[in-house]
Amino acid sequence: MSKECVFCSQTRQSQRTVLKTSLVTAFLSNPRLMRGHLLIVPNRHVERLDQLSPEERHALIDTAASLQSIICNQLAQGCDFRIHFRPFQKEDGIKVNHLHAHLQPRELFDDLYQQSQKFETSIYKPLSDHERNRLINLFIEFLAANVSNNKLG
To answer: Is pLDDT above 80 for 133?
Structure first.
């Protein structure tokens, strides 16, 4: 018997829910990285952004924009908006295979910065001309084929 997705059950009922619409649910993250850390999930179970309907994509982004405004006006000076797709990681208490967007209230030198992000500068690498050209061509070719076939929303 397969275990139900924790976010699917979360969209039906939760004491942590801050907003529920017909398409998305936003709730406080538990565990959380910082005070006010929110998750926005589509009510329908999908794993990737490209699996959402256009209406679901709009609802997710519009909900994120509204909640980010509250965060920036009431909780913090800044706010990160993140969506991850990592099928190579095992699902556990933190990683869930249901598309979700994080809204993370941020302050200068907050815990996340102090414990992780201040070390990021050493892993960034310059974009070479070869890499830039190869990737630009890859995206242009894919987009040209899919726009002409009306496969992009």
So the answer is: yes
